[in-house]
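Purpose: get a first structural picture of the assembly so the mutagenesis plan has something to point at.
Setup: two entries, given in the order below. No constraints added.
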Amino acid sequence: EAQVTQNPRYLITVTGKKLTVTCSQNMNHEYMSWYRQDPGLGLRQIYYSMNVEVTDKGDVPEGYKVSRKEKRNFPLILESPSPNQTSLYFCASRGLAGSDTQYFGPGTRLTVL
Amino acid sequence: QQQVKQSPQSLIVQKGGISIINCAYENTAFDYFPWYQQFPGKGPALLIAIRPDVSEKKEGRFTISFNKSAKQFSLHIMDSQPGDSATYFCAARGAGSYQLTFGKGTKLSVIP
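Result (structure tokens, whole complex):
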């Protein structure tokens, strides 16, 4: 089954404790992206990657890092989380040719205390 | 700077009624306009999409109307059902780009 998976689905942590949210897709997609979703603000892009070792900032990159060492994986790293990073995070992917459809993962609910 | 403005923020419709959600954009370079549907606890999923060379696209009970001169597009859900209750996001993408710019979302509640 074609899918985007994220782990963990729920995470409660404390300010300053480094964390990583993993994202993996099995569709051989080149393009991957991270979004955060906040009430009243919709979906805002954090970082995206066009392919292995190619990443770029989205609209709200401050406080986040990403890496793309393998085509299927695109982890989101919060090196020193703060309470304003409490949010619902989504990973997404799409191929660069053919269908325009962007596929989203199930989301990771992060709470930073 | 919000490039895609979506309204209303929330919408309550009776079963069998028509749900209408509107979006407006400013960037004339946008050439792809998808709508995503999100159920609670799930990620957004593509519902229907349109390109500016057509004024309307219909898939079942869902229709996108597109007005290029007004830079507006809307989602119509005919015969709305309780199972349509979800958050709907419009989005837009520029020509040659892979990045989607999303509206802020509309929470639709269809009541029996």
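The mean pLDDT of chain B is 94.
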